[in-house]
Amino acid sequence: MSGKYVFSKALKELRFHHCQTSDHSNAIRSFLTRAYPTMKHHNPHTPILIREAMNIQPRVFARYEFGKEKMADL
Q1: Which of 7, 16, 18, 27 is the most exposed place for a label (fewest CB within 10 A)?
Q2: Residue 5 pLDDT
Q3: In Å, how far from its chain's centre is CA 38?
Q4: How do residues 19-59 score in pLDDT, each as one tens digit?
Q5: Are 74 and 60 a contacting pair, CB within 8 Å?
């Protein structure tokens, strides 16, 4: 299976954090609306979590094997 949103088997969880109302989260909301169905279709066994909270900066967290976690500001 090849595709733009096929994740590595080492990736165990993907979490998106963003604000549901602020302008600085518009891009991530738009991306998730468009890309979430495709990501979930290509990675049915990988949890993809979306967390909304007031006034937080958009970030993504990736959890890998052995509990290793990486964070990136969006």
Answers
A1: 27
A2: 83
A3: 12
A4: 999 999 999 999 999 999 999 999 999 999 999 999 999 99
A5: yes
CA 55/CA 10 separation, integer angstroms: 31
The model's pTM: 0.87
Would you state the structure tokens that stand for residue 72, as one six-digit string? 């990136």
For 49, the token pair is 């979590």
Distance linking the first and last C-alpha atoms of the chain: 27
- Report how far residue 50's alpha carbon sits from residue 25's, in angstroms, rounded to the nearest whole number: 13
The residue type at 29: R
The contacts of residue 69 (CB under 8 Å, 6+ apart) are: 61, 62, 63
